[in-house]
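User: For my dataset I need records formatted as: sequence, then structure tokens, nothing else. Please produce one.
Assistant:
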Amino acid sequence: GVFQDDDTWKKFKQEPWSAAFISFCMRLAGAEDAFPYHPAHSYFVSEAVRNRIEGNLTGSLVAYDVDEMTPRIGDLLWFGTGKTSDWNFKRLVKEVDCGIGFFPSHTGIVAEVNSRKKRAFVVGGNVADTVLRTTVLLKDSGLLNTKRFKAVIKVNI
């Protein structure tokens, strides 16, 4: 999904593959050049945050705090991992605005939203070394009702 036309992927064989899975799904869904394919989540999350900082709310990816935006099918949900596991949305925006490069993180794709049952289903790659669908609870308002995810990345593709 990341390196479609060559063998560059071979030098990443030992790397976590969750962002490559997201890139593959976006390519399969027809995102073409609108998605910034990359083997690290931080690359496309940073683009979403920069669009938000710059007020580009029609950009292909835009980051929102989980208390600001209801997730829809195709959106990405983000959380920090490792040294960024305690980051909230405000800290994410601050770090991206200060020019941070790579930062450990994870995203999953919203595959289904069931407002009536107050649930969303998220698909992620390299979750327990597999592709896994997890359930995320929603509030009555449709916002996420979880402490795990810290940002909703709207996918406007």
